[in-house]
Specification:
This protein has 489 residues and is of the alpha+beta class. Helices cover 43% and strands 25% of the residues. Helix 11 runs parallel beside helix 12 and helix 12 packs antiparallel against helix 13.
Length: 489
């Protein structure tokens, strides 16, 4: 015999199911399936109910369902019966039930009304699923999540997570301290807010390019970058980025370590070293060079006197005087090499002009220097680093680029002092951008490239080197007009 009953007071109908098939479904279900009348008396109890609660069907049929409901949850049954009487299905909810041995078990319960042949509600069908293992797993995951959250939140380094659009999804307490923004001002905004120009403007294009091509420049590679605080100051950072796929989308996590303290120490060490070099150079110039010139004059005087009595001996003394002058010249050059930039003597422009002149004379190539007279470098250490960068770039142009012409330029562009070294040499790759100042990790670069990048890092400069085969190389190194700001932490 087959029957068809409405499944709810809304008039929906269930499919026609043979009683034998329905009995088989109930019997072999993994979930406890229990029917009861409107007074809560158990009418049926399947094998899964026995496994879950420990009661056999003969022990429960005819008894109240409250047998398996903890005392503190009895009000639930009253609410359920009330909804069933109105023909309403009870959506699955999580609660506790009692086993025969007195232990409580976490379960998910759903209840539906049962209709008699006359279409009237005669009772309720309850499906109960044991979720205790799931709850344990969820608790374990929650505990692990809380531990990881505690680790992230107490980390010394800033940890920032962004989505594929570059929008910040999370930031830890160290990020707030490091950048000066409260979390509410960061979450939901583009991560470029934490970068100075020109890197902020380039970030979205870089991210889109990575998502399109899969070619990474930062992901999986630690490198030094520049951060920007809320107050606008820039400072050096070490950034490492990793990506993870979560629920069908990619997230990127950046760990940022403040290098301000290390940079300040390095700056002090280099400044002390530079000052010592300057002192030694000055001593060579004012001491040894002057002494050698004095000896040469005395030798000239002696040569004239000796020549009266012995022309041969006089010639020997003159050769000695010439050798002393040559040594004085070498000592003077050495002195200048140790102290190439003298702010009191004209500073960086004068030093670069002299460099261009020496290159032209020594290598017989055209090397010209131009200065717009607005670019100012008032710190001797900064000026020295820029001079050394120019010196290294020119050396590369001559040794590796086979350049016939080199142009040096010192100019003020957009509030930044920019040193440009341009040559007409052979270049080193078609359309290759060799570096991005302290933000490059181009391992193919030589020692000279690394040295220039390091010097740029020390003065918070942006270093760009662009080269094309047979079209020469252009180096640009720029700093805030007057010297670096914000890099000392």
């Amino acid at each position: 015999m087959r029957s068809k009953h409405p499944s709810s007071v809304n008039g929906d109908a269930t499919a026609t199911v043979a009683p034998s098939a329905l009995a088989s479904i109930v019997r072999y279900s993994e979930d406890a399936i229990i029917t009861k009348d409107l007074q809560g008396k158990v009418l049926s109890w399947n094998p899964a109910a026995r496994r879950l609660f420990g009661y056999a069907a003969r022990e429960m049929v005819g008894r109240s369902i409250t047998t398996v409901i903890p005392p503190q949850r009895l009000d639930e049954e009253k609410r359920i019966i009330s909804r069933v009487r109105r023909g309403q299905r009870v959506e699955p909810y999580e609660t506790l039930r009692l086993r025969k041995d007195g232990r409580q078990v976490e379960v998910s319960v759903s209840v539906s009304p049962v209709f008699g042949g006359n279409g009237k509600i005669t009772g309720a069908a309850t499906i109960i699923r044991d979720i205790s293992q799931r709850k344990k797993a969820e608790a374990a995951l929650l505990d692990e999540s809380r531990r990881m959250e505690a680790v992230v939140e107490t980390a010394v380094d800033a940890i920032v997570t962004i989505d594929e659009r570059g929008l910040i999804e999370s930031a830890n307490a160290a990020t707030e301290r490091l950048f000066g923004y409260p979390r509410r001002e960061m979450v939901g905004r583009n991560v470029r807010m934490l970068m100075p120009e020109p890197f902020a403007a380039e970030h979205d294009a870089y991210l889109r390019n990575y998502l399109r091509t899969g070619r990474a420049k930062i992901i999986g590679i630690g490198r030094e970058v520049t951060g920007r605080r809320k107050d606008g100051t820039s400072f050096p950072l070490h950034l490492s980025v990793s990506q993870v796929r979560l629920e069908g989308r990619r997230l990127f996590t950046g760990i940022l370590h403040d290098l301000s303290g290390r940079r300040a120490l390095e700056h002090q060490i280099i400044e002390a070293s530079t000052n010592e070099q300057r002192r030694i150079g000055q001593d060579l110039h004012d001491g040894l060079c002057q002494d050698l010139i004095g000896i040469a004059f005395q030798a000239d005087f002696a040569a004239r006197n000796v020549s009266v009595f012995s022309p041969e001996d006089g010639e020997l003394v003159r050769r000695i005087a010439a050798s002393v002058r040559s040594s004085a010249t070498q000592a003077r050059r050495l002195s200048h090499g140790l102290n190439p930039v003298d702010l009191a003597g004209g500073g960086l422009p004068v030093a670069l002009e002299a460099l261009a002149r020496r290159v032209t004379e020594s290598f017989k190539i055209r090397c010209e220097f131009r200065w717009d007279h607005q670019a100012e470098v008032g710190q001797e250490v900064v000026a020295t680093h820029l001079f050394r960068i120019a010196q290294e770039a020119i050396s590369n142009s001559i040794k590796h680029g086979n350049a016939a012409r080199i142009d040096l330029r010192l100019a003020c562009e957009g509030g930044r002092v920019t040193l440009t070294v341009k040559d007409d040499g052979v270049g080193f790759a078609a359309g290759r951008k060799a570096s991005r100042g302290p933000h490059s990790n181009d391992s193919s670069s030589g020692i000279g490239m690394h040295t220039m990048r390091y010097r740029a890092t020390m003065i918070s400069a942006v270093l760009d080197i662009n080269s094309q085969r047979r079209k020469g190389t252009v180096l640009k190194c720029s700093i805030v007009n007057g010297g670096p700001s914000g890099n000392r932490g």
